[in-house]
Amino acid sequence: MTDNQPSAQIVRYIVAGGLNTLFAYLIYALAIYAGMHYALAVFLGGVIPLLTGYALQRRFVFSFHGGNRLARYIAVFILVYFANTGIITLLLESGITGSAYLGGAIALSICTLLNFALNKSFVFR
Description:
This protein is mostly helical. Helix content is 78%, strand content 0%. The chain is built from 5 helices and no strands. Helix 1 packs antiparallel against helix 5 (100-123). The longest helix is centred in the first third of the chain and has 28 residues, at 6-33. It is elongated, with a radius of gyration of 15 Å. The mean pLDDT is 91.
């Protein structure tokens, strides 16, 4: 397995993303606990770890040494943010889950896969 094979990238993405995702979810859960609306909580949980996630994915996950891709990374963040809040809204309004905590965890797991695919194919290609 070479360093840039998809399987190696996925392992590194899981490690780096796992730590960043736990940080993001902690911020999300604390914001929900503080009484914030889930859309604002998702935003805070994504914006705060945004720069650490960019640095980790750029160097550690994708070993990208090209030009600055922060604008593309932020565009993907915005797209994934809307997907995330859309999934939570769907889960809550459909009655599939009545908990913003569980809805956030489900949406986060789906959006993690979406984020990897978009970063690999669009941001750090």
